[in-house]
Amino acid sequence: MTENLNMNKGYTIKDLPLSERPREKLCKYGVNSLSNAELIATIIRTGHKEDTAIDLANKLLSMDASGISYLSCVTIEELTSIKGIGNCKAAQILAAIELGKRISSRGGEDKIKVDSPTVLAELLMEEMRYLKKEHFRVAILDTKNQIISIESISVGNLNASIVHPREVFNIAIKKSANSIILIHNHPSGDVTPSTEDINITHRLIDAGNIIGIKVLDHIIIGDNKFISFKQRNII
Length: 235
Known about the structure:
By secondary structure, the protein is an alpha+beta fold. It has two domains: 2-104, DNA polymerase, domain 1; 110-228, Cytidine Deaminase, domain 2, CATH 3.40.140. The chain has helices at residues 2-5, 22-29, 36-44, 53-61, 76-80, 87-106, 117-128, 165-174, 195-211; strands at residues 135-141, 147-155, 179-185, 214-221, 226-228. A five-stranded mixed β-sheet has the order 2-1-3-4-5, with helices on both faces. It is elongated. Mean pLDDT is 84; it is low at 1-11.
């Protein structure tokens, strides 16, 4: 029924049967019953004179071939380029996305212990697998290998000029790190380490040994897969 109505203009979500309206459907059947478009429509609440909230949601999901995955790194400029999405609706969408990222990264009040690279990979996979640029981050660990924080160091293709030991260990020292784990993503989805990836890793290991903050591993995140330099015996 929803699809047939979407063929016509000049209607609103109120023209849908009560059981098909996103908010009412959520309340009656639970949030899992909603499609991606209906979830977005619930966030933005209203459409405009040419499109319902569901129409606008479908346009958002059609911005890129990757669908809803694209929204993980969408900008306010891209959102407001769609007719009917102003700053207010764009802000609501971005706020909801950011809340999801923060909830995913927390994992509860207890500190997370990193006893295998899988722990960090699972923690950051959904956030980092869809990024369009390379993001270099550092997991700062205490004496029990528990995460103190995960810090962003740079954005852009990895090279020695943007990933400098000074930036990496400056934040590690400030956070009283006992050790660190390096993390970055490959936007291509391929997790094969480049020569530059390996060279930077060894450079940071050497710097860490001098400072007294050990580099335990380097994790590369791709599209739903990752590699650990430690497990691959690269370091």
